[in-house]
Backbone:
């Protein structure tokens, strides 16, 4: 039976079919659906761990007692998990351990771009790269087998276009219906293998090199790496999604398709290279294979083409591969099949600027009032740009180099500095809220705020972080704040979920990924326990109280935590019978409310209107309006005896419900 | 079988992913190899949504290339304009007449105003050989549920595809919960028949 599956669903299916009984991870686009889907299989253990490091450590433990284990994360998650990743590369496993890294070329939903194939080489572990959903199923099984037979963790690397593309998968119904038996194994005590003291690690280092040597031999003969001969004037080496683009663009060429891309099958590559006139390496992001191929003495470098043809930044497509090939005169155009039939020059396209539809905080989002208030704080005591420039004497020499974008004037401003973090609330950085000054990586806001204070910055500084990100890696930053005599203000936006990735459970949610009730962290007590005495909790929709508490905390010479609490509007907050309504008599068109970037507020000529079907009755705009023009009315005008008007503009013509983040 | 590249677009919440799922399943049922890919992540928060569907004997890339789409199925007019360049010269645009406003304040929305119908027609007609504007939202409301606009549009698209109506009906029955089956089948049939209120601006 064939089914159409996302790459991520296929990885979950493959893990279950190969008897994985433990899976852990931390949510992050494009990896999230793997674990969410795996958790639905009967008889398995799945958990969203507090962060990727813990996820991998739990995974290592499970593998050491013999359970087949999968650990999932996005590319930057492996940075967090790098420490245990390198450790387990030394220790080896007992049950198969596959670590899935879902990379995000093009940064569709990430703070940075990185090619995690490098981690395989870095930690000396085998790397598998599926190129469609069927291969996701198959390579999960092969990865677990490799892991067990070579006593090594295996890195299975996908990209967003594998994770989030659906293709056909052969599904064996009996396999899915089979009974699952949880593992019951005794730990195989072996301190020289599992206690990584220098003396033991030195022995393991030798074993790692031997293992790599054996894996290399395996790579030469595994059917994961195979040649399909075509025209021998052009030979293409490719892997992952880039292989699919290359197959489409170069239908006549010869192909060496690599499913196992580390260690590279160098003999196979040398043999393939010797039989083709030009060797073209098609790979997204880094020249990972190319650098290794170019280092082979048997491959003449003048026959190799790679990154001089294709970019090392961003996501590929057939279109991009074809265009790059055509622009390079070493590739005959007869090999290139253009995926598009449109001639770009046959008719000029109309030049109309279309309004962007940027992602926004949802109507009713609990982060809106906080960011509105932060915006006020950031810009209220702003010295004018010209004055700042003069006060600073025109700037510090040497800081206006080519790597600094923007002018010095723009970079030197007073007002509160908001160190942001990663989650839905990073959307608060966009116009018109524009209320975030930094966002680096998970949990960085707190340490950076402390650093700004210690670095002698003249601004008042604070950190803003979501609950899930705080549990992930904000806690250790707060330990530093709480115990180092700082006066840092930390705002924790607590909506009880990991919202950006689709509402995944976290340690504060009170349930598990498969829906069982769980204990939850007591956030207030935790913060006090870390050394911060001034811990306040405010309602996320009470603009005045947020303003007061933030102002107070910023003036304080003690460290403080302000927990801004709401329930995520996408996670079952009950719908309200009331909505906000703009009294057109009172609205003067000052647009103050529009600064909240609420999708329910629309401009109708010189007034604001509220789209009733979108309004979630959070009443933040009501509190902000300087003319008291926004009032709360019944959502259903017919039920309203007093006949207060409540209609918004053409409610039938609006989207009624937001798409769930998961398909 | 004739290869088909179809791009579906609209705004999060309009049922685009359900429509592209149904389209893929119908394609599978009649023997196509199928690949599909959607926008995930940040775009989910009220952003523009695009779903690429490719049907052929053998499909490699899940992405449709610019200028390679046979059909553009748009659930919202502005999004139709934004992605019209995916169509090839002989391509057909099936577009709902629904307009969902962008964020009101300039600065976050690039400052450009929402285009008027003349501009929209101008853009669409420059890219497509045929444009069908369908009053899907109001028809869906008349059917009793604004959410079935997506299935109405699938019905309109189905007129152009050489796939038996039974396959569509069967897939819709499989894909939607029992209590909404009849409504969705009706919506599909409404879209499949030429309508008095649809129009062709080119």
Residues:
């Amino acid at each position: 039976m064939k089914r159409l599956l996302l790459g991520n669903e296929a990885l979950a299916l493959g893990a279950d079919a190969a008897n994985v009984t433990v899976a852990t991870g931390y949510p992050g686009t494009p990896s999230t659906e793997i674990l969410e889907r795996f958790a639905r299989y009967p008889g398995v253990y799945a958990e969203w761990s507090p962060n990727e490091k813990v996820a991998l450590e739990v995974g290592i433990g499970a593998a050491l007692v013999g359970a087949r284990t999968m650990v999932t994360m996005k590319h930057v998650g492996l940075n967090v998990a790098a420490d245990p990743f390198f450790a387990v590369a030394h220790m080896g496993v007992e049950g198969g351990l596959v670590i899935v890294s879902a990379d995000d070329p093009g940064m569709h939903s990430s703070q940075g771009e990185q090619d995690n194939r490098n981690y395989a080489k870095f930690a000396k572990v085998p790397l598998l790269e599926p190129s469609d959903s069927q291969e996701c199923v198959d390579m999960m099984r092969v990865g677990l087998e490799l892991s067990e037979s070579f006593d090594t963790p295996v890195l299975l690397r996908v990209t967003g276009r594998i994770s989030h593309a659906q293709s056909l998968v052969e599904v064996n119904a009996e396999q899915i219906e089979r009974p699952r038996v949880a593992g019951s194994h005794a730990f195989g005590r072996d301190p020289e293998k599992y206690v990584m003291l220098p003396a033991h690690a030195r022995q393991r280092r030798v074993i790692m090199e031997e293992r790599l040597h054996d894996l290399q031999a395996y790579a030469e003969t595994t059917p994961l790496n195979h040649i399909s001969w075509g025209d021998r004037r052009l030979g293409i080496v490719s892997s992952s999604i880039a292989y699919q683009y290359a197959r489409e663009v170069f239908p006549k060429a010869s192909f060496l398709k690599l499913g196992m891309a580390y260690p590279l099958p160098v003999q196979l590559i040398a043999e393939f290279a010797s039989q083709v006139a030009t060797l073209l390496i098609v790979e997204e992001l880094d020249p990972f294979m190319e650098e290794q191929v170019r280092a082979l003495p048997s491959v003449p470098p003048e026959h190799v083409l790679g990154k001089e043809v294709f970019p090392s930044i961003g996501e590929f497509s057939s279109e991009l591969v074809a265009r790059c090939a055509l622009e390079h005169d070493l590739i005959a155009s007869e090999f290139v099949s253009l995926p598009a039939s449109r001639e770009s020059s046959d008719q000029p396209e109309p030049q109309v600027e279309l309004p962007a539809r940027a992602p926004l905080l949802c109507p009713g989002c609990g982060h809106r009032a906080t960011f509105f208030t932060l915006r006020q704080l950031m810009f209220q005591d702003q010295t004018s740009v010209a004055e700042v420039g003069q006060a600073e004497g025109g700037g510090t020499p040497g800081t206006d180099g080519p790597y600094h974008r923007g002018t010095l004037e723009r970079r030197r401003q007073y007002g509160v500095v908001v160190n942001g973090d990663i989650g839905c609330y990073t959307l608060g950085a966009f116009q018109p809220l524009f209320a975030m000054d930094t966002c680096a990586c998970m949990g960085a806001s707190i340490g950076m705020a402390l650093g700004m204070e210690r670095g002698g910055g003249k601004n008042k500084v604070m950190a803003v972080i979501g609950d899930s990100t705080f549990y992930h890696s904000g806690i250790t930053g707060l330990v530093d704040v709480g115990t180092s005599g700082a006066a840092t203000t930390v705002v924790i936006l607590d909506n009880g979920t990991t919202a950006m990735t689709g509402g995944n459970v976290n340690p504060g949610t009170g349930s598990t990924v498969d829906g069982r009730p769980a204990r939850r962290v007591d956030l207030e007590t935790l913060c006090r326990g870390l050394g911060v005495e001034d811990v306040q909790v405010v309602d996320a929709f009470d603009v005045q109280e947020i303003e007061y508490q933030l102002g107070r905390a910023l003036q304080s010479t003690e460290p403080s935590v302000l927990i801004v609490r709401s329930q995520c509007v996408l996670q079952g907050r009950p719908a309200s019978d009331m909505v906000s309504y703009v009294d057109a008599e009172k609205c003067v068109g000052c647009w103050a409310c529009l600064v909240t970037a609420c999708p329910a507020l629309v401009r109708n000529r010189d007034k604001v209107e509220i789209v009733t079907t979108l309004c979630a009755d959070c009443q933040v705009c009501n509190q902000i309006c300087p003319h008291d023009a926004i009032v709360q009315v019944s959502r259903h005008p017919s039920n309203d005896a007093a006949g207060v008007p409540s209609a918004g503009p053409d409610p039938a013509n609006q989207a009624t419900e937001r798409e769930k983040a998961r398909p | 079988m004739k290869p088909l590249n179809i791009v579906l677009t609209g705004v999060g919440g309009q049922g685009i992913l359900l429509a592209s799922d149904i389209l893929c399943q119908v394609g599978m049922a009649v023997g196509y190899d199928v690949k599909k890919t959607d926008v995930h992540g940040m775009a989910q928060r009220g952003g523009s949504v695009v779903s690429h569907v490719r049907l052929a004997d053998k499909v490699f890339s899940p992405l449709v290339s610019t200028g390679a789409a046979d059909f553009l199925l748009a659930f919202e007019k502005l999004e139709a304009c934004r992605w019209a360049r995916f169509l090839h010269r002989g391509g057909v645009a099936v577009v709902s007449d629904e307009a969902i406003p962008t964020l009101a304040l300039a600065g976050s929305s690039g400052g450009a105003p929402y285009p008027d119908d003349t501009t929209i027609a101008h853009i669409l007609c420059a890219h497509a050989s045929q444009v069908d504007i369908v009053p899907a939202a109001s028809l869906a409301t008349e059917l009793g549920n604004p959410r079935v606009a997506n299935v109405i549009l699938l019905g309109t698209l189905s007129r152009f595809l050489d796939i038996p109506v039974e396959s569509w009906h069967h897939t819709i029955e499989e894909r939607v919960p029992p209590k909404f089956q009849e409504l969705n089948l009706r919506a599909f049939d409404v879209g499949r028949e030429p309508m008095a209120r649809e129009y062709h601006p080119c």
